[in-house]
Amino acid sequence: MLLGLSGQNKDMDVSYEAVNGSDAGDGGVPHGALLARLAEAMWEGDREATAAARSAVVDAAGADVMVDAVAVSANFHMMTRVADGTGTPLDPGTYDMSAPVREACDLNGFVSRRDPQGDRQTAQGASN
Fold first, then answer.
1. Please, which pLDDT band fits residue 115 given cuts at 50, 70 and 90?
2. How many CB atoms lie within 10 A of CB 24?
3. Which one of 52, 70, 85, 115 has the fewest beta carbons within 10 angstroms of its own beta carbon?
4. Burial of 36 from C-beta contacts in 10 A (0-12 / 13-18 / 19+)
5. What sign does the CA torsion over 30, 34, 40, 43 have?
6. Tens digit of pLDDT for each residue in 99-114?
């Protein structure tokens, strides 16, 4: 969501193909394939692959970009864990606005994905 909006603000034509793997392209983002490879290595927990990906990002884009990328990834991971742990659903506006992105990135198939609209409708139905 934010990637698309920030791309619009910078007159960039970003896409979401890189979300599903570094071999899927760069998403229209400078060094996008390298950044996706870094995110994959961090997610997989492979220290050697993570170190190699960090070095590749630093070599191509600089240390500031690498630090920003790792910080953004860590923050999103943390926010998702907090939301999942507390059962916090997406608000209706975000849920509706994110539908095309969730579909394009095939996010609806993830095991951890919940249907917050359905949960909210169920909760509203129970209170009526």
1. low
2. 15
3. 85
4. buried
5. negative
6. 888 888 877 766 455 5
